[in-house]
Amino acid sequence: MCIRDSLKPYYKPGKLPIIPEKRNWKDFVAKSKVVCAPGVPSFARIFLTNRECIEDFNILYREFHQWVALPDYEGLDHLCEKRLAAHLKKAVRDIHIAGLALDLERLTVRQPKMEILSFRVYKGLCVDREKNGSGKDYTVGKESVYGIWPKCTFYKKTKQRLIDGLEVIEETHKPYLVQVKVLIHSHMRLFGYTKSEHQLGSSVTDAETDMTPNIIQFEVNVKGTEFYKILPTTGKSPLTREWKMTDINNALNGNPLLAQ
For labeling, which of 81, 124, 134, 252 is most exposed (least CB within 10 Å)? Predict the structure, then answer.
């Protein structure tokens, strides 16, 4: 039983949930996977592993559960893109307004299983949706990333001067957006209870593995030169603390990068 189902006496269908209900889970996972060009899955795996991104995903996933359970709204603002943070904070407030509470059990530092479902690269867009504006303001194309990454979707504002040549010397210019969907299996679970500590229900759990699966969308803005740093050598700065959670189990329909 998931939190949404357990709180039906208090909420209208679709009002909540913290972690959306997952119907036809296998179909949902299959639709989240992206068929990539040859070499892309290997490159994505090497990039994410050698840039220590998997460690970041572990940290973010654990903190997400902790900040929801406390709750820590500032933590959610730091952890998530603005739209997702607003969605989560509203859901948590609704639970507390109803006189209920959330708690976390089986805190896990390293999640037992992670599967990369998709790895996309966009150019010209930001993780912060407010900065991107409307799709009507852009022309769209395809291009390679320094000849390393086969293709990325290129967004260029109609009235914007390109400054790609400056990105090597301008640290703040990070035109590439990396978007990763990860299927995470974890022993951690959020559950709801009344003030009398009567447990009402918890996150959906796989009966065979006793783990809770969730699909998380992570995003980060990087410089093009970051794609060269894929060799397993020391001395590279990781992308630690730069990733943001932008969606969970398609709660925001992928959290579109551009307003329609």
Answer: 134
Mean pLDDT of the chain, nearest integer:
77
Using CA atoms, how far apart are residues 207 and 80, in angstroms rounded to an integer? 29
SS3 140: strand
> CA-CA distances (angstroms) from residue 134 to 124, 161, 217, 225?
13, 18, 21, 28
| Cα first-last separation, the chain | 35
Q: How many angstroms separate the Cα of 228 from the Cα of each of 27, 83, 121?
A: 35, 31, 14
Which residue has 């996933």 as its token pair? Answer: 61
Whose tokens are 């995903």? That residue is 57
Structure tokens at 1: 């039983």
CA distance 118 to 133: 24
CA angle 163, 164, 170 (to 5 degrees): 80
Residue type, 30: A
